[in-house]
Design goal:
binds zinc ion; two-stranded antiparallel ribbon; single chain; 4 strands; alpha+beta; 1 helix
């Protein structure tokens, strides 16, 4: 069988990350950040200005990942 005729098996996620939305104080764009666990200054991808952010507690992130088996429990049951 040639590569073209093979049925492709859909791929499941192997992990997950939580994305937090920080509203830019300058233009109100919600800037997406992947679990920022340290206080930092970030740049808005819309207006280009920077602002300081409040970090996420690492323990809360670990809890959500544990409760969803690192995202696997969130997979559509029709595809399990
Ligand atoms: Zn902005």
């Amino acid at each position: 069988m040639s590569e073209k005729n093979k049925v492709e098996t859909p791929v499941r996620p192997s992990g997950m990350e939580l994305i937090y939305l920080y509203p830019c104080p300058h233009c109100k764009r919600e800037v997406p950040l992947i679990s920022p666990t340290r206080p930092d200054r970030v740049r808005c991808d819309a207006c280009g200005r920077t602002f300081p952010i409040v970090p996420i507690h690492e323990r809360s992130n670990r809890f959500v990942k544990l409760m969803t088996a690192n995202g696997l429990a969130a997979v559509d049951p029709d595809f399990m």
